[in-house]
Amino acid sequence: MKHTYARSDMDVVKSQKFTRLCSLTYANTDGEARSERKWEMVQRTTRTIPVEAFKRSQAPIPIDAVEVCATVEKAEGTFIIVVAQYRPPLDAISLEFPAGLVDAGENCGQAAIRELREETGYSADASSILSVSPPLSTEPGLTDSCCVLVRLRINGDLPENQHPKQLLDDGEDIEVLLIPVGDTQEALNALLKAAGKYEAKGQRAVVDAKLYTFMDAMAHMHNSHCCSAL
Question: Residues in domain Nudix hydrolase (predicted)?
């Protein structure tokens, strides 16, 4: 990086129920001739942090949502839980990790356990949590919204997980997919095959970048171990 930068102002251009369009002003701060610039940004309105807190540097890093990377261990094998749902901005079915907004008063682990239960029906508790990531940005050129990735290990043979039932809100239409991960390369192929199932029905399907990257990394790690053993 040649310069250091700071935000000096933010104006709300238009606010809707769930999002607002903002105009940012920022400039370099390293002693050279200041060059103020503008940038458009989308924010979530569901967060509890007041909008005034984002007007100047250092603006808070908002954790709006959790993504749940959950493996289910059953007698017949281990599976990654994937959900499929129609996403209007894409006009396509999106295959993704279970996810959702963090409610007021929740920590990220609690939000992940709740969202997993609601979207997939699978039950977990605090002892199921393997790791909680730092705040992660997914569209840094578009929004300041960050998420946290929570990894869970689920005992699929528990009675409450034998026949999981979703707790969906009115209007939610989410299909639960279990992707086998015994062979990591085959897991990636199974994910892409699942996407193809929707396309065969005339509905476009897109795999979420975070999910694909995770599955692809597992496949490459598997291939690297195989190559090193040769």
Answer: 61-205
Question: What burial class does residue 74 get, using C-beta atoms within 10 Å of its C-beta: 0-12 exposed, 13-18 middle, 19+ buried?
Answer: middle
Distance CA(5)–CA(87), nearest Å, equals 35
65-223 belongs to CATH 1.20.5.170 = no
Please state which of the ranges 96-100, 128-132, 148-152, 186-190 shows the lowest mean pLDDT.
Answer: 186-190
Contact 181, 80 (CB under 8 A): yes
Q: Which residues contact 12 (CB under 8 A, 6 or more apart)?
A: 20, 21, 22, 51
Adjacency order of strands within the sheet including 19-28: 5-15, 19-28, 37-44
Q: Which residues contact 171 (CB under 8 A, 6 or more apart)?
A: none
Contact 60, 49 (CB under 8 A): yes
Distance CA(127)–CA(130), nearest Å, equals 8
- Round to whole Å and give the CA distance between 47 and 103: 9
In this structure, are residues 70 and 129 in contact, taking their beta carbons and an 8 Å threshold? no
Supply 68's token pair.
């749940």
What are 38's strand-pairing partners? 25
What's the pLDDT score for residue 230? Answer: 36
